[in-house]
Structures are given as C-alpha cells and as structure tokens.
Design brief:
four-stranded mixed sheet, 0% helix, two-stranded antiparallel ribbon, mainly beta, 64 residues
C-alpha cells in the first residue's frame, strides 16, 4: 500500500492505495506515478484528521 501526495488547483490531496500489482503480477510502487499527471477514481475516506481518496485497483489510476 502507498500514499501519493498530489496537487490539484493549488490543493494538496492524498491518494491512498491498497497493494497494487500490474498485469504481470509485479508490485506497483510510487515511482510509477511520481512526477506524472494522473486521474483517479476512488472513494473519499477520512484518516487521522485528514480526507484522502482511497483507491482499490490500479485500473482506477490513469497516467496521462
């Protein structure tokens, strides 16, 4: 699992994932998304006083 710290329209947004694997069964790490623009589909979650977007599948993160 990982937490990605993202920016959108001047806001900081945390995106939390479960453990993600690619189509070949390889573990996906934050380096797959670091420095890239992504679209995310997930649910809003509240953890330790902050809201985050919770993502359950690599199919819910699209690299642009």
């Amino acid at each position: 699992a990982m937490t990605l710290t993202c920016e959108a329209d001047g806001y900081t947004i945390s995106v939390r994932t479960g453990v993600l694997y690619d189509d070949n069964g390889n573990l996906i790490t934050e380096s797959a998304y670091m420095g890239k623009t992504i679209d995310v589909n997930g649910i809003i979650d509240y953890f330790e006083g902050d809201y985050q977007i919770k993502v359950f599948s690599d199919e819910n993160i699209t690299v642009k």
